[in-house]
Structure formats: structure tokens, C-alpha cells
Amino acid sequence: MGNVIASAVVSLDGFVADTEDGVGPLFDWYGNGPVEIYGTDQGRPFHVSQASADYMKSTWPNIASCVIGRRLFDITNGWNGVPAVGDHVFVVTHEPPTDWPFPDAPFTFVNGIENAIAQAKEHAGDRDVSVTGGNLTGQAIAAGLVDEIAYSLVPVLFGTGRKFFGDYVGPQVMLDDPRVVQGDRVTHLHYRVSKG
């Protein structure tokens, strides 16, 4: 089996978006470098530093499934039916959309984080599952479902907004020392959750 990786781009004070769901300068590094790289959508190139490109190339191809919340799905319109990374998206929601214009897209609407991760892992097989930052990450960590944390840290303070770990309330979780990759206006910190 692959790993379940909680991942997001995060401000220094731990936010993945502001209170209006805007990302401000958090995504600037996706367009500030000379190296072109793609996720799943071949029509949406990123231009990043060589260090960020090398890091992305070492992680993104291993992701088969993504677990996201309904909020992110609505904000992005499910990326118009094309997963940002991986080949299938599991959306945690109590109310699947009834009028989404991409009914044949590789998106599955699931009730509950544990059920979503179980289905995502089954789909992924030996590859990895990505869980987006926010309340889902906090719920997945509290349930002991996360193996790694990929924290792309941007040098900005938001002061308030949507937290990477959501409203996490749970046991203390120890992490191994991170793999550190210094990009341009981003530092990629990749942690393994300590298992003992």
C-alpha cells in the first residue's frame, strides 16, 4: 500500500487560505521559475524553480487519489472535471452535487473522511493518497489515518484564515525530521508521522 499524505501550501502562521478562501501570495511560487511542470491537467503548466520542480517530480507521479472537501470542490468547480494531481478525486460531502456539468469525470462523492480515505487507498493500490489541508486533515490525523505531511511553507503571515489542520483536537502527534527542499519563495517540508 502507498502512503496517505496530508498536503497543502501554507503560510508561516499555518493558514491555507484567508477568511474569504483567497490564497493571496501562497501560490505565487507556482509561477516564478524557469522550469515548466504539469500535474494531471496538461493544459495547466506551472513554472517553478529547479528545486521545487525536482521535489514535485519526486512526489506528484506517486499520487493516484486525492481526498478533498466539498468546500474546495465548490471553489474550484472540481477543476472542471480534471484532477489537479492523481487520476481520481474523492470528495467528502453529505450532499453530492446534482447539477455538476462533468458527470463522467473521475470524481466520487463520499460521506465521511474514513470512508473517503478507505476508498482512495483501494483505488490507489501501491501508490499514494493526498489529503488536502483544512478540516479534513485534522479529522484524518485525529483518526490516525495520515502517514506523511507535505507542508509547502510560504514566507507570509496571514494573521487569520483557514488553518492547515482545521480545528484539530486530538492526541499529540510526533513527526520524524523533515526532508527539506528550499525553492524560490517556498520551502517544502516533508514529514513522516512517527509510528512509535
Automatic annotation (TrEMBL):
InterPro entries: DHFR-like_dom_sf, RibDG_C. Pfam families: RibD_C. Residues 113-176 form the Bacterial bifunctional deaminase-reductase C-terminal domain. It comes from Kribbella capetownensis. One of its GO terms (molecular function) is 5-amino-6-(5-phosphoribosylamino)uracil reductase activity. Gene3D superfamilies: Dihydrofolate Reductase, subunit A. This is Dihydrofolate reductase. GO terms for biological process: riboflavin biosynthetic process.
